[in-house]
Design brief:
alpha+beta; globular
Length: 360
Amino acid sequence: MTNDDYLKISAHFALDESVVEASPFGNGHINDTLKVTTASGLDKYVLQRINHHIFTNVDMLQDNIHTVTSHIRRKLSERGEADIDRKALTFLPAKDGKRYYFDGENYWRMSLMIPDSKSLEEVTPALSYEAGKAFGEFQSMLADIPEGTLGETIPDFHNMEFRLKQFHDAIKADAAGRLRAVKSLVEEIEKRAKAMCIQEELYREGKLRKRINHCDTKVNNILFDVVSDKVLCVIDLDTVMPGFVLSDIGDFIRTGANTGAEDDPDLDRIGVNLDIFKSYASGYMESARSFLTPLEISLLPYGGRLLTYMQTVRFLTDYINGDTYYKIHHPEHNLQRTRAQLKLLQSLEQHAEEMDRFLK
């Protein structure tokens, strides 16, 4: 698409300034994101093409985001916070009143750029502490939203029983003829399967409730002030939906506390960085302790093992299926990812008692 195409799409939103340019922005992997510059030279708006192949119910997606951002704004206002427009995302309606614009093929949305903000990529103990506080605060502000208010933008996204069903379906089909070569990995997954379905069992027993989670707790999904380095707000709200609190601490441990890469070919580089875990957990508990139950707190370190196990299952499922879901860079990429995630899981298991003691 050309700049003129993007400007024509932008014209369908209720903007308060004329715009002259749209250019690629950020490094997201799901949606196409552009910063939109006004005639006065300001980068004021963010235009996104929503990936409706992943987020198939765009109305639900945008309603979820509107509910969440409105709720956060109200909480900030009640506290007497200043500069709320920099502490919560603002999405602009289309001129027809909808929360998106549909051009006949693609869905688009527009938000305000948060000025003087930055995102960070490096994970350090200090930054992990701030990230833990930010995501814990995010959950805390949304904890009083009644169950059933938000929909699941990706159904069964962090449902371990569902992911295991997909895994078993892949084994049964063996579509790519790869099953025999990965029998040892299948055995590693199977021997942990029952222990990794605890949250669904506890939910059915009424002992664990669903809460509103971010479900993509990476450092680069937080905006910081460019001068003070203080947290401004949590962004990338597409996966904000009902689930269990284990998701938001577990996914950060899986991604941020790994000493290697998610697909590291050298398994000796992979392990859990306990300083990162302790920093994130400390920040998270500082913000989230007020609404967590004792059972939820006791399960938080398990969340790291659960989300790592879940990703191991998903990578191996895709490999057995013939690489139909994840983008790969070489034929054995999903197998390499599986082995790397399994090594991280084993490291988390080795340090489980220490992590449990720290939370207590």
